[in-house]
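Section 3.1: Structural characterization of target chains.
Under the original work plan, the team committed to producing a structural model for every single-chain target entering the pipeline before any wet-lab resources were allocated. The record below documents one such target. The sequence was received from the expression subgroup and is listed exactly as submitted; it comprises 588 residues.
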Amino acid sequence: MTVHTSNYDKYPRIRVSDQSSDCLCGWKAITAEISRRVQQQHKPAARIVIECYPGVHESEVSAAFAEEFREATIVFSSNAMLPANEINAFFAPDITEDELFGYLTRHTIDRFFDAGSVSRTQKYIHSVKEGPVIVIGVGAARLCPEADLLLYADLPRWEIQQRFRRREAGNIGVKNRDTRASLLYKRAFFVDWRICDRFKKKIIGHCDYVLDTHLPGQPKMITRAWFEKGLATAVRRPFRVVPFFDPGPWGGQWLREVCDLDREAVNFAWGFDCVPEENSLVFGFGDVCFELPAIDLVFAHPEELLGIPVYGRFGDEFPIRFDFLDTMQGGNLSLQVHPLTEYIRETFGMNYTQDESYYILEAGDDAAVYLGLKENIRPEEMIAALKDARKTGCFEAERFVGRYPVKKHDHILIPGGTVHCSGSNSVVLEISATPYIFTFKLWDWGRLGLDGRPRPINLAHGEKVIRWNRTESWVRRELLNRVELLREKDGVREERTGLHEQEFIETRRHRFSRPALHEAIGSVNVLNLVEGREALVESPDRAFEPFVVHYAETFIVPAAAGAYTVRPWGESEGKECATIKAFVRHHA
């Protein structure tokens, strides 16, 4: 394994203001500011609404405001919700009995509330004549749409997942925080987050303040004007989201060294450094950092971020995902397959599938990928062997599945329906479409998850989407290192490396010892510095400040940023560097 002295930035931020005072820190400062605003309004019963994204610690919020507003009437939105059994019954078709998968709900915030309770609560709020009324919780703005002050308490999804694991949070309207974290996540993914994102998009543009509640006991607050300025700043320059990392039963040791991670952790299997649905953004106000969900930028500026053609196709969803899969000194990933587009649409309500690719960042001498099928196998025989493996704990993968050696900088294309997995002793930069939980495991090498439970096998789904004609001859022709030289001049070599024509993402590799010119026209660009210690991203017309990236860092260039160059920088000056870039194919 190549050893790197880490210069990876685990907490990148976007400078919005040089003044720390533009971001209020701590409950005392926050509630004092709200008190000042209430006094300015000269209303004896001002209505303060604090809309909360799921997972926010509402008890912490209410305690802080009760301390400042001793005469306040505090109303929790949860008290106007339907009983838990009715919520469960209503959303059962979307939650499903499946351990991993549900159906993306089409419903709205109203479906959590009891109409009679809402009416009574609204009458009660209007009946209060003295002292402010503070309405707190998910759907608080639904209960009190005519707020005198509206605050939005936000939270990135990765932090919500940590609260699920720590049993600090459950799903909306039900007391289920002791449920297994994976089930809480599934329900949130298919129901809670979909509904609350729809509601967020309606109201966040009307809020007076936005709260960062990422760190318990250390809240921060900015005005809507600063929130909007931060988003407007981000969408016209290169930026990085805050990466997060997770261990796994097959995890390796490369990420720990390259990204300077916890030395006490057993391993790190995943590194997620471009999944805007779950990553966060950090705005810098002087020395103060304000953290918010990266998806807020997608919602606020989809055309400028994604590009008009991409927005027209995907709406306000970020369609490209980059992440690391580390098996260095680890094990094989599960043998798996992703659904076809028609299957994911009909079965789960998702409009596009997880086509993907493996870009090999690091490889041991024995590194390999499992990909496609052997020639002339009988589908019924392979499915029977996979079913038997659940009882016997043994499946002869290489009897049915192709295995191909890989080396550093190989690019393996994996359209939906292709059986695949990465083997041990490699580091994969996975470049894929965003529907990232729709992986059908076929075989997991007889091992348990880190929780000691068998990892779910999804053969019932998987056998319906496997493309049985993707055998060794097809794989070698269509999926392995389909590299095409496009141009080479003045120290810059540009190559098309994929993806497969079935996939909507195109990838280009640039090897450069001089500035390499790129155009982010019509599509957001996502890049990773796959060779070289650091590089500098610049605007030819100085539209944004120069932006430094380090080895293995993924960065996003919005479509609105236009042209940009990437060149070796710092210790890499005079040496050859390389980036891999992904964008959505479209016709100019």
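The chain has a mean pLDDT of 95.
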